[in-house]
Amino acid sequence: MSDIKTHDGISEANADVNPNIVDRYARLLELSTDLAAILDIDILLHEIVEAARELTECEAASLLIYDPEDNHLYFQAATDLLAEGLGGTAVPTDNSIAGWIFIHNEPLLVDDVLQDPRFFREVDVLTRFQTQSILGVPMRTKDKTIGVIESINKEHGKFSQEDQKLLETLAAQSAIYIENTALFQQNDIVAEMVHELRTPLTALTAVANLLQRQDLPEQQRLSLAQTLHVEVNRLNGMTTDFLELSRLETGRSRFYREPVHLGGLIEECLQIIKAQAEEEAILFDVHLDRSIPPVQGDRNRLKQVLLNLLTNAIKYTNPGGKITIRLKQKTKSILLTIEDNGRGIPEESLPFIFDKFYRVPQREGDAPGTGLGLAIAKRIVESHGGTISVESQVDQGSTFFLRLPSDFGHRLETKPLKGHPLLPN
Ligand code: ADP
Question: What is the DSSP secondary-structure string of 77-104?
């Protein structure tokens, strides 16, 4: 009998400390070892929130990064349950739980968010997710706080002190990994940038040298000045594209969310490139379903994507060609196709067409370009939850397919979103 009592006594005492605590710390160690090896920032952030959710045994988790430029926190990753619709929503630091955690630089546990005036309700509106409880901790590196991790809705009971300790440890490690990965990616981009700038810079140096010669005939001087102009423009375009891509890749881009009528936007783009097409005697055949409701997105960024696809279609189509544009509503998405009857893309090039700096080899010397347009377009479209793809046959033409999710009805009613910077990718 006394044995049994002792046994019961021990198990009760252990229950206070939680018998699976060792297992949970072992798992934390395992997860953080995995995280340390990830060098892609998007994958890293995603794995961090998955780890947070698993370790604190809750329904969802999210991660926000602070942007000192506008004093907002931005959702950069969330577990699947929350991810839909959240993509990069801005959260003010002065009026949210995450903001409180960030500013006070300390953890916060809220059992019932609806009773807490700091709770930023927009997030639930966007995700159609019901937040009940939140455990949030700051992510600190040696010298600053970079953001916040939040665990949402404990699965059984309430978040405990133990959950908090686990999440704090994960957050501390994650902050270091995020900083390292961002640095690594930045370096990679800089190296590529320098490499790509070399070609136009070499051309410019040669031109500058030649122009200094006293004996240069006037005709040649003029022609060199034109080359100079073209190369400077190319450099200019490249640096702008490069900056854009680098911002997209490192999550420093601001996306606005507003209702966008794709039909109207396409027509606006067609106006812009009309003269260019006329010069080449290229015809547009346009079929736009006017009844399609607006999508939620960043108008300027979407315009940039459309302009890139349309100018490419002109650039890589012979004079007298035709470009067919169709906008259709599909079951869950809106589909835009841009079809040309131009030179097409060789099969072996298709897998690389959205890679940065990729241009079909030994062919595009005549058409100006940087090979960055489609890489940027892909990033932008994916940030909108969409996809971009291509089908093509040499000498027959190419068709680019752009799909954007159309399930945005409820979001249009959320009033304060227009004009707010949302979603750094
Ligand atoms: P750029 O046009 O500046 O070279 P992009 O990233 O926009 O860069 O396109 C990458 C490459 O894809 C182009 O260099 C070209 O080889 C190919 N490409 C893009 N659009 C088309 C098209 N409509 N038809 C044929 N080739 C295309």
Answer: EE-HHHHTTTTT-EEETTSSHHHHHHHH
